Fold these 4 entries.
Entry 1:
Amino acid sequence: MTRLTRKPKTPQQTAQQTRTLAALEAAIPQCQACVRLREHCQTVAQTKVRRFASDEYWGKPVSGFGDPAARVLIVGLAPAAHGANRTGRVFTGDRSGDFLYAALYRAGLASQPDSVSRDDGLILYGAYVSAAARCAPPDNRPTPDELATCRPFLRAELSLLPKLRVVIALGAIGHQAVELALRDVAQPGDPRVPKFAHGQRSLLTLDPTRSLWLLDCYHVSQQNTFTGRLTPKMLDDVLRQAKVLAQLDAA
């Protein structure tokens, strides 16, 4: 007798059928939608690099991470090949994550200033961290089609974070991913979101009782942080503004 093989769910199907944030976090690593990305992540996990030769790589899509009651969502680009693709937690185990989580700690949104592994005890307070793409892409560049395929996961997070008030988009790709994900849930007639600009903020109405702020910030990539394009103070200022808009200090 021929045994039928169940076809993996698409991100769209997963997003539509998932009812809780925990269920979404469990489902994302099972995604097989983008062949190029899955092959790349697995190849990196097998070949590794010398400094992490003894590590067991995650090598799968990476879920978001943080507080289910988050008022602030931070959206980056994609897992780093030897960062989140190794550790299995977004912005964990690389220099970009070092920069981001140190700032979250200074802002009172994280329990510790660093993030090195999934079991290092890090807790986020009022914040959730995610990405436009969930697999590490070659050359850190997901294609437009890959970003579109992954977008339902971000859209689901927006729906499954009921207390969300502010989204911080890290970089132009993060900005565009948030804009496109919000377009399906925003009120008809909302003005088009302006192009990415560091420090810019835009207000979108999701329903008659709920609005959401979109804040732009340069990405925490080494290219930006090593050159001074994004400084700790600049990121601190964005997080401070996000806390005010989200009314976190009053929560």
Entry 2:
Amino acid sequence: MKYGARNQLMGTVTDIKKGSVMCEVKVKISSGAFMESVMTMNSLKELGIKKGDTVKIVVKAVNVLLVKE
């Protein structure tokens, strides 16, 4: 699969919180930090993602905001 995003990390799925339509997938990357992705339950099923799987994280963001309050 080709995509335009250049920011790519590998990680391990540590948790999946399932709702009725959407789910939240938590991934631990090599630095020990965590990233999360929200997707539909249909996408989760089609991708076959399960806890413990190694996945590629592809990040393409129009804006990244940092806020200190």
Entry 3:
Amino acid sequence: MSFGQSVAVTKIELLKYKRSSQVATMVQKILDDKRKVLLKNIEEMIDEAMRARGGIWEPLQDIYSSVNESYLVLGTHAVDSAAGSTPAVMEVDVSVRRIVDVKVPALKVTERDTGTAPYGFADTSASMDRATSQIKELLPRICKAAEYENSIFSLAKALEKTQKLLNALENVIIPQYEQRIKFIVSVLEEREREEFAKLKKVKAAMERRK
């Protein structure tokens, strides 16, 4: 409804505004509960994300050092050739779960059972083997950190939207309902007083004629 419309001062309109105000108050309570749950989950995920990220930087530096050493020992062509011909042995499955009514990703890393090494050890170096092993070990933790950060982003967007709706209800919609209810009640009471005064005058006039 548009709050720019004029108010019809009737008991039916008063009842409509009272019902609308009650519904708006109920929605406000639901949204406030949702806001609290979202905040709690965001805070928990921030802690988890910080722990997850804190545990990957040092291993990533080791992997970078190992890869760099491989390039120095084997040469760019040999490393790139081994990387290009190596079949994927790690898979990332993406599913969706819900927090409140927000969809967030869930990542699961699995290793394929190829039964053999992904490349020939004679064509590589110890540094490349070490980097491969480190990446396989670290990938699940990287994905978990990414899962938390993506979830935080999605929950933060939902929190922003929820807060905007709450602000609209608390600062605009509910106050305007209350103002209109107060105005209609005031006008109706004034009309009742006027009608009562008129009835008293009529009654007094009739008594004088007796």
Entry 4:
Amino acid sequence: MRSHIHAHPKYIVAEFLDLTKKIGCNPEVTNSSENTTKGNMNNPASARSSGKGGQNGNPTLYWAAIILGALSVLVHGYLLFEHYALRFGQASAQSLCNINELFNCATVSASRYSEFLGVPMALWGISGNLVLLFLALWHPLTDGEKKSASRFNILLVSGLIAAASLVMGFISTAMIGRLCPFCIAAYFLSFAMFFCLRKGLPQTTGGALGSASKKNLTPVIVLSGIAFVVSFIARDQIQASFGARDLTSLVREAVSSWSINPKMSFQTVEPLTMGAPADKAKMTIVEFADFRCIHCKHAAPVMKAFIESHPEARLEFQAWPLDGECNSAIPTRNGASCLLARAVFCAQKAGGTGWRAHEWVYDHFERMVNVDAIKALLPEIANVAGISTEQLITCADAPETKTAIEKGAAVGTALNIGGTPTVYVNGKKLPSGQILQVLSSVHDSL
């Protein structure tokens, strides 16, 4: 039977470190003898003395940094998906990253700061963390002078990632005015990684950075170069997977078409509005949409994110139901689209909560199957809007409400709208106006 002394945790840890050192998994490779290492394990005070400044390192913190790096890659991967989903009109307002007006990843992603050299910051984050992980995992396989250079390179890359996190956090807070929850998680992961690596890697003689002769940046330069090229290749492949093999051409053609389209003079009828006042807006977007149109559902978070990230822009949402009951341009009647248009109109008129109802309807798009299903959902819409069900139904059935929806639809019909969503910017029709890059390019051209 094993004695109580030999079962003590500190002896078990010592034996484990001995074993990992033998198989090359322990980053703590120093010139200290085996007896010194065990002596330090037996004498905590001695261990603290010999390990001052992280000289002997800490394997637990080293492996914690590896785990944090893997988590950071996953977080950046999620942000990358959300970034492109938003840009290609496939985002959902129910995203985990969109909590409220302040904590909203979509708004941050829609800003001009979300990309560098045309590559999303999330993709740069993935590349940087993979470089760091490679360097950190390679470290135990080095020895002597190479180990000193390896430690220097690891801390350099980790420090740069942490510094980049500080810069992006400042931009998000001070310049965009919105916070991205998953971005914040990535920032904290970068700081934690730097701390764990700083304390976890054994410090060689000559200080934290080692002598000048040990600062061999070749691995960092080579890996960074590879990561730089791969990031652009990955960007193109990801864009292709979203159905846009040449987004640049699509954006160029849309903006070119918009620039030569005639400017139309029209006035929306009691639309939902968001953003800058009409008299101060540099860019006024008018969206004609139907609440039972899947493409309009995908356009909704794009429009919202764009307006929130561009304070000088204004959005006017004009319902154009694909329903002959209230739209003379549509030959068939279903009653459902018109009822939804009236319900959202009444939410705005009675409670000033039209956008809440607008978002709720698109979030529950699959439930809007027919007019009977929508009638059953009116109490839920009323609850979201903060008004009574009776108040909503009375308003939706009122002749003046029906007239307002018909007049709004007639505005789009006069413009020869052929489908939804149809977007106008400053009075001119904008093809593919539901794509974020198209809106951004038009904004930049003004």
